[in-house]
# Entry
Amino acid sequence: MTAMAKQVEDFLDTSAPFDSLDSEQKLKLVKHTELVYLTADNVKELQKGKASLFLIQSGQFSVKDSDAPLRHLSEGDYFGYANIIEKRNFPLSITVDSPGLVYCFDALAVEPLLEISTIRHFFDGLSNNALQSHAIADSNSMWLYKGLLDAIEKGPVSVDAQTPITDAAQLMTSQKVSSLLVTEQEKLIGIITDRDLRSRVVAASLDTHLPVSQIMTANPAQIMGNRTLFDALALMTEKNIHHLPVIDHQTLVPLGMVTASDIIRHQRGNVLFIIGELSKAENLYELTRLSWQLPHYFSAHAKKAGDYDIAGKILSQATDIMTRKLIGFFQQANGKAPMMFAWLVYGSQAREDQTMGSDQDNGLLLAKQPNEAQAKYFSDMADYVCNGLAKCGIKLCDGNIMASNSKLRLSLDEALEEAKQWVKAPTKDAIMHFNIFLDVRCAAGDVGLFKQLQKQRAPLMQQNMFLAALTRNSNEISVPLSMFQKFVYEKGRKEKDVIDLKVRAVALINNIARIYALADGVTLPNTLARLDALSSRSQLSKRDAANLRDIWLFLNRLRWRHQLENKVTDNRVSVSSLSSIEKHQLKAAFKAIERTNQAMIMKFSGGVS
Amino acid sequence: MIRRWIKACFQAFTSKSKLKQRLREHDVYSTSFAAVDLELTSLNPLTTQITSVGYVSGKGGRIDLSSSGYHVINTTADLGQSPVIHGLTLDILKNGENLAETLCVLAPLLKRHILIFHNAKLDLVALNSAFKCCNVPPVEVVYIDTLKLALYQLNKQHQVLPSNSATLSVCRQRLDLPAFIEHNALDDALATLQLFYAQLTELGITKDDALDCLLHTGAVGRFKLGST
# Structure
């Protein structure tokens, strides 16, 4: 009898994809497993031994197991899978950098497991170096994509087909419903609604002792319980009906009824709804009251990965609306602006990837140099708007990148002159200072003015010297992986295993997208939009761009979930809070970012960094 | 009197040289080791009883996980406070196996392998009395104690040993082996075997060395289980 030690089981349980096996499958696998304390002394035998899949539990090794270059591996990393998947015999070469424990799963025991799609997918992903992005493909979901079972609140209210009309009407009254499910042997055969009672009974003076089957709508449109609220809405709109029975997708037993009013009620729980409300606010008090509900709405309604994808965008839109509202309130009290202006937003608000902790970064662009009175007007307006935003929960910028700072209220000419200075002397300090201004969007005021600025300064920023300087600057940050592909955690924190995903990873992707966008003359500020908009002339391949997009969405999901689950506003995600597969994904994401970043440095900085 | 003393000395000497001879025949990488661990009812060698046995074997730095074995013993002894440590309560033990049968399964394993214990003394005493009590034919075993190996290394570095510096977990931690949950007999056996392999590397013992190179550490011994 083979027993399985707890530590072996625990280790498998935390190692994707084997965490998905049941205990019988695990025991079967363990029967064909050796645990090796791999040292320089016994490594040769492993290389010569039978084909196996290897999983490192501790120690550090340099491995070449396929045509891919030498890899430095440590705990949690697999090797030897290429031989098993591709059924070939690439000689394994391992150098022991620091001895440790390695699980060797016999290929014969692993092969049957590869028939399980999740496991196959995992190792295919590893060998293609791709991000494990099974959930990312369907990212366009919204709050309406809520499961129907979550949406229907009442259990089914139903009557048998033989029930007299009077009894059915009484049941509807006592249950306070406007429709009934009519069943025969528990299967749905029809529905009756208030309207049927009105038009088919009262208007026709029908005998109310007749069975409901006489007046019901037979074979009504129906929807399975595993669909979404959105599907229900689409069907109801298509058929022009207000009541839609929901039935179990396997047993076909009715589960309840979705009504038009259910959908309206859920619409109120939609973050898009609060945006609508924001734009109706009539004064600062109403605006702040609604704004403070935003975090609550996010934590109550953002449940699925797809929700996190658009959360940043919604928050940015909300901030835009607040800004426009505040400018409107100011103009109501102080009169129209004395000249054309554009309210510019920078950084995360411009990129539309704000999170709960993002502070405000904004500035003003003026049509011409203002005189003293005009300058006073804009100064007052900026103060009012910035403080107003702070009251709405968008905190003031620590770095004073706000329109209330007189240095950020520039005329068009001044702004152009400033851009020339950036391009002329892109020193490290200067880039630190102006990097944030390169992601810019006009949130309020005259968009034409802003477009003029962009058009005039775009050619400046396409200059090679400038791009080279930006690229070198981007090289200052590296992904948090050590030489041996171990996670490098933030130092000096109370929590031992946190990584600041914004600083260490998202910012890098933003840099990459920004530099390629500048080189390509793309003026959009949003990272995903930039990656999408790159022309065929761009030096970033479509595949890399698509990969970066997936990674960006993945990282964004992790930090939104971190913020909502822990009710914090930072981006320091604890690695131990991630699932085993997420850890793998995160590592793959970091590696991919690093590769793309290095490729960019080779392209733009002339290979010198 | 003197004759008897000389005889004892002689016997001790020959037994030691016999052990040395035996060890010299084994090189480190082709010897089969089996790590064995017992969970006991108390730490008193006179009264302690076995509640569970775990073992796993391997050679050349490898551990064959399919050789893992674990037996819970249906003991009637007073458990005292021991369930707090090993987690085996009366209910679990009631469904356990018969001690004599388990020892019969164990005996060939003990004979064929060089045994690895962490703190051999207590486990050997407990096994010895179990062998006697169940009338199992005596078995002579050669064992290596990872606790003694650890102490040998520690004594090189410390005049006075820090307390708790030689527990299984602490020893493993020192050699960068992963943490595990202690006090399950099989887990402890597996952890001990891993520790032993790591200790061999730490001591700089290579493939071609014979096992007698461990003799000077005082961690190797011979024991006749079930003899009076």
Remarks:
- Strands of chain B lie at 33-40, 50-58, 62-72, 114-117, 139-145, 220-225.
- The radius of gyration of chain B is 18 Å.
- Chain B has a mean pLDDT of 87.
- Chain B touches chain A at residues 29, 54, 56, 58, 60-70, 176-178, 180-181, 184, 186-187, 189-191, 194, 197-198, 201, 206-207 (CB under 8 Å).
